[in-house]
Write a structure and sequence with these properties.
The complex is a heterodimer. By secondary structure, chain A is of the alpha/beta class. Chain A is built from 15 helices and 16 strands. By secondary structure, chain B is of the alpha/beta class. The chains are: A alpha/beta, B alpha/beta.
Chain lengths: 610, 339
Amino acid sequence: MMLNKMPARAAGVFDEKMTEAIANSRVLVVGAGGIGCEILKNLVLTGFPSIHIIDLDTIDVSNLNRQFLFHKEHVGYSKSQVARISALSFNPDVEILAFHDSIISTDYGVSYFKQFKVVLNALDNRVARNHVNRMCLAANVPLIETGTAGYAGQVELIQKGLTQCYECQPKAPQKTFPGCTIRNTPSEPIHCIVWAKHLFNQLFGEEDPDQDVSPDTADPEAAGEAGASALSSEGTTSGNVERKSTRAWAAETNYDPEKLFTKLFGDDIRYLLSMENLWKKRKPPTPLEWNNLPGKDSPPEQHTGLPDQRVWSIYECAQVFSTSCTSLQKDLRGRTEGDHLVWDKDEKHAMDFVTACANIRAHIFNIPVKSRFEIKSMAGNIIPAIATANAIVAGLAVLRAQAILRGDINSCTSVYLRPKVNHRGQLFVPEKTLTPPNPKCYVCAPKPEVAVACNLKQLTLKDLNAAFKDGLNMQAPDATIEGKGIVVLSSEPGETDHNNDKTLNEIGLSDGSALLVDDFLQNYEVRVRLQQEDEEKMWRIVPDADKPMPAPRPANGANGSEPKPGPSTSRDHDSDSDLEIIDEDDDEPAVKPPKRRRTEMNSDEVVELC
Amino acid sequence: MVETNDIELSAAEAEQYDRQIRLWGLESQKRLRAAKVLIIGIAGLGAEIAKNVILSGVKSVCLLDNEKLKEVDRYSQFLAPPDKIGENRAEVSLTRAKALNPMVDITAETKSVDNLPDSFFTEFDIVCATGLKQEQLERINNACRDSNKKFLCGDVWGMFGYMFADLVDHEYSEEIVQHKAQKRGPDDTEKTAVETFSITVKRRAIYVPLQNALSVDWMKPEMRSRLRRGDPSYFVMKILMRFKDEYNRDPDAAKRKEDTAILLRMRDELVKELSLPAGFIVDALLQDVFGTMAGAAAVIGGVIGQEVVKAVSQREPPHNNMFFFNPVKCVGFVELYGQ
């Protein structure tokens, strides 16, 4: 594919080999956020003649401090499309195709990926990263994976057979909290914030039984006489409200703020107090009265700083609770039957509601209260992002892409941008060698294999489907029994629904049985061995028989309440990504992979599942 | 020193700068808003620095350049529309620079630095100079230094680049993260959890002028010992600066072959002059030094932009005093020279 136009214009800037390699390339950029904008700029200036860019997101004001291809008048428009137009003004001689879409789609299959010489990831979430990783492995296209968080960042090459893939090392599970900590015994602000977001969903959002906000009577710590005494006293006098769904109860009271407040911050707290075992070693909570709230008679404190940085009094929180409740209910009522609100940190009333509820609950449990600004960071999982770190990472990524095109792929080791220089004065720290693939990786090994530990007598096929999706990051799994060829799970809608509620035992699977699980979209097949474990309440992925992976533990399983299949983690992330920050690699022998600290971070660029 | 002002940020500013205020704090953002920045040389590197500094939300940026936009600038200068070749680089960059952040006051100056008095430079809180010759850099650095104003300079040749900083006598605060084991409630599965908290400490850094950093005596034993563990980037910079002094231009892509030969000859001379180890400055470092590669400009411009933010906000330790990007190893490092 030799284009007529030669965007790599002035002869001599590159050597001939590089000039030709660039002129004959087509590249894909996944994500048009902070890093994506910078990558796109570098590519068009360098003269890459054919670029595809994809992002499903639209432009927000808070992007403008770094996503420099966007200006105020572009707020609300498609990122990929505005990025294309801005980048073309730097070099009209290149071809840019922009897609306002999720990369996770049958429209972008293996043959789509095969047309690119290099793929550059500028994503902010693991689901999309896993997916692009698999697509590039299947298409055998080099992938440059990037990420930033605050001052730090990284650039990493993934090439099938040459380097480790994005999924060669197990990622640390998302931080979750035991259900009883959230519902009964919060001790930190984050516990109250998670509770407040659950409450939002219970009242206005999608009801999730894992997000119950009422006192948890099955708390093992409260076992014994406490539960009984609780049931006989407060439980019954307050109409045993915890037996009814919070939403139904709220609807009956017509979302009356005072009644809601009295139940959530008065009755429920008194109920918790009756579970006396909980308070033997803890400071007990103090129920609140709507008409007698702290701060009612005092004027707001003098405050300097952003308005959002002022901490509200409990009286003010109650006022905000009241107004936000009313607005949210109005919004909910205006929607069609069955529709619901989705919590968004950038929606004023949704954010107000969570701030107010988290602080009221924190006050009750003697936990420090926080400003709306701080709560927004925690509730919205906001990772700070700046132009400079994105510029550096994107610059390094495109230099790496040039090296790959030139045939120097073996020199493309991972590079880490450190927030501060290391003991050798290094700010960008390259690894000395490429990290080879993990031969036992259940994604990129020649014959991928993984074990799923579960209780085959209890786990249903529906649960197993969730294990494939949530545990093995598949999009549309099909499963057949090895040796028998029987299809037990199909990605075709309805085809295997009759199996949904059958246990694995019931369909003839036993300890040691194997399934061949295939994802058509990802062009990925893995052999799944089943391991019987009587104690397993749901399922656990065991990628390597010698070294079991630290599996995400359930929120509920630990406290003896109703077992739930699948890691019933509180999904309190808008998005996630991760960043590896190298610690101090210099004293490590070159052959040993450097020590890493994997941290949970979400950076900028959002391309998510639609 | 940037004066602090007590005027609160507007709602629009708070919204636009939200993601960075969450990193460096409100106080830093207020200091940024008071800072007047001069950027000299609006080729690829100057455009990158301008973009980063303007996005950060400073008070004003002056773009100074007396040169015309060239064909080769199209590889990295994204602030200038490509059809403006032949026009003044600072002036043609104004429209796009302003669009990056309408809250920043942006002006262009088309005189040569040689025709501007010292008092012009000291009007600014910080000066970032690119594309100048050594004597021009030293003159502006000394003018800034005499008025206690901060000075940064840097350049990119092909894929290679450097930065120098003279923040004179710089006071800053640094956040240090500490860990404390904490006992949790009896319901916690982990017996103890580590609580992280940060404390802020005040620090001070003393800088030297550019001429000190560029006139290092490599015959001194302490400098010889640096060669053993060292990276040759400092010498690559010296060779490229000498080239500029001698030929009154940077290596020219159109004369790639001839200029590479000159650079390698200059390298051999320097190696002899300073008795450097043979093979210390590999050929590869002098072969990709033509024009400005967008990726390299982004990298060096990112580092310099961040140093402007640190210097102005007086937060976090700034680099003292040279940064180099070695594209062959893809390493970026800071070393102190001339002290």
